[in-house]
Structures are given as structure tokens and as C-alpha cells.
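Example 3.2
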Amino acid sequence: MLNFVTKGKSMKCLIVCLMLALNSACVSKMINAVIPQQGLKPEELQKVKTVAVIAFDVLEFRPTGIAGALVGGSAASHLATAQTGMNIKEERSELAEDLYAELTASLTKKGWQVLPAAKVASNPTYRKFFQTKKASLLEKSPNHFQKPVAVEGIMRPVNPHYMLKPEERTALAKALGVDALIFTRVAYHGQKRDYLGLGVAPIYLQPILKFNMYAAHGEDPIWFDNAFEGPRSATSIGKISGMEDVDKIAQFSRPLASQMYVEFLR
């Protein structure tokens, strides 16, 4: 009898978990219906010949240690500071530099002429926006397992739609001599294969791309995707949240993002 009751409680718990998961999926679909997460204006995109990536950053995946994994959020960031070097101000990073170059190469293969980062960063009009906007672009700390890193002299895409007014985008595109401006971010996550996220399970590294392209004239982006999912690592980076293998993370980060760019721009 006791065994029957125990099984009954386990079944109820499983049903509740499934209902919560399904409800979450329904809520997500409702949000997507109200706030589109993807968009494309083919007729406007065909007019684009030259582009500049004017805002770019990477949210690196950083194991937080047991304290960070258990507490989460900002408290975890403080607890794990000694281990992860977590802070809200971005750092210059070799990974960010590599992925910016990788994106530029991928966009070039797509058929666009891409203004080099050095020319973007040294442009007087861009420098003016960089100096006046940068202070307001320091966002609150991201997820406790992520650390923002950036390219020297390039703004971060904290809020692409609001960081520059339409008339400012027009002026900047004219100054840079391009048809469109790109704001983009690569954010790394640790994904578990078990759907409900219960118990200890292999964790796989996965990059997520946020991409916004604005034409020189116009208020809304002509191409955007707020959460394009890149491929997951072929092997796991660990089984315990907060204790992932940093060497495997470093090994997988660039090739996963490179493949994601190929899939996104195909």
C-alpha cells in the first residue's frame, strides 16, 4: 500500500512538472505572437550592398562554482567573483575579436562589402556616439554564468532599437558610407539534454545569436532574430552546473559560433 501511495505521488509530481513545462511553452508562443522574435524585409535587404557591424559583444560562459550554481542571480555573481572575475563592465577579449572577424568574413561570403572594425572605430562620427552612448550602455549584470566581453572601440548592443535614434542611425550610416548597420551579440549557454532539467545530466555548450540590421533610413530593423540557436557541442562540458570544464568551453566556443554564423546566413 505504501509503495502504491509513493508511486502515486511520484506520478502526480511528474504530471505537475509536465503541465508546467507545457504551460511555459504556451506562454512563450503567446509572447512571440505579440512580440515577434524574428523578422525580415526581403525587398529592403536586396538594396543592401555595404554594411558595418557597429555594436557587438559576446557573453562568455563562465562556471560560477557550487555557490553560484546554487544561489544564482546577482548574489551568485558576488559569491563567485574570486573564481570567475564577474563584473558588469565588459573586457576586451580574444574570443570577441575572433568572432567579430569571423562574422565579417561570413557577411562578406554572403555578398556584402563589410567595413573593417578599425575603420568603424576610428570614424569621427562613430567616436562621438561611442563616447556619448557608452556610459549608458553598461547594462545590469547578465546571467550569473555569463561574462560580457567586447572588441576594443566597438559599442555593445545592449538595446539595439533604443541605443541610437533613427536620425542618429541615418547620420552614422552616411558617415561610414554604408547602406546598413548591424547590432549583434553571441551569448553562450549550458544546455542539458533532459527536458525538465531534473537531476545530474550532461551539459552541452550552445551559442545563441541576437542579430539586428537597420537600413540607413527607417525606424525598424529590416532583418532581426532575437534568439537564433546555434549547434550544441558534440560532447558535454560537464554534468554539474557551476563545475563545467573550462578547457572544453574554450575548445568549443569559437567553432560553435562559426558554424552558427554559417547556418544563420545561409
